[in-house]
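User: Fold this, then the next.

Assistant: Folding the first:
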Amino acid sequence: MFIDIRYLRPWATLVINEAESSSLVGPVTQEDVKAAFFYIEEDRSPRSDGYSVGFYKAAWLIIGDEITRAVLNFFLHGRLLKQVNVTLLALILKVQLSATVANFRHISYCNVLYKVITKIMVQRL
């Protein structure tokens, strides 16, 4: 179901000021990318490309410029490489036997770049 935002405007109030608004849409810097990247918790599970966040952090001196360029390109042009645009879903059974989907827990394995991009967006909120 889609709702036309114009119908909601009479009930919506502005809750952020001009300075807050500009911080939400301001340019993303190389420092923003690196800070968001190193803020991500190192987990043991690999991402959709098979590598963990810990691997990327350990190889930052080698691959950091490439990652930064890809993330900055996303924020400038709104596009990601097709190779990055992958998410694997796994369903883990919560109970011994089940006939319904409700008894499964889903896990999404997103590419590390997705995590960095969403972390930057969340930090600006």
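Now the next one, as you asked:
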Amino acid sequence: MKKSLIRAGVVAVALFFAACSGGDDSVVNETPNPTPVNPQLGGQGPGGGIIVYLDASNEHGLEVSEVIGTVRWWNVNQNPYNIPSLEDGIGTGMANTEKIVAHLGNNGTYAAKLCKDFVQGGKDDWYLPSKAELEKIYLYGRYNTDCGGCFSIFETLWSSSPKYVINFEGEQIISGIWSTDFAISATWPEVVILPLTPYAEGGLHVRAVRAF
């Protein structure tokens, strides 16, 4: 009788561990859209956007959303000319977006807030691209054919980077916002990145971008 009880206990323990193991050694990734193992230009990024730029490692880069709106750059209730320290390099768009929204506020619909509020593919860290990031979008959309129809020649996109000037009081103020027009054919994107007044009444297109 004693041996039978011991044997039954051993079997029960063995069954318990077998049930816990489940016979499946695979690792479950709970990230909604993990970064692709081998990201490719034109492929889908972890946030469901189009990959338009990869850095030298070919592991990290930028993905861009579809056009998410046609809006003004500024909030009509706030002066957009005195937002300081907005930059134009790769990797500066997120900080620019945060500064713009902090200055202009959460009321109304404008380019930076539209991007900051955007959520796609389980990712909520989208932002309005800087000038250099917008150039990467332009270069891919204009000259790559592996994503046919992803961009339209009728798009004119805002960036988060201004063109600064010094006024008569010696203060640095915004004279315009860098944008790009896909209808203009040029060898260098600098030619088509035009400073437009923040008071462009009709609004321009907005695509959100995120780094991965």
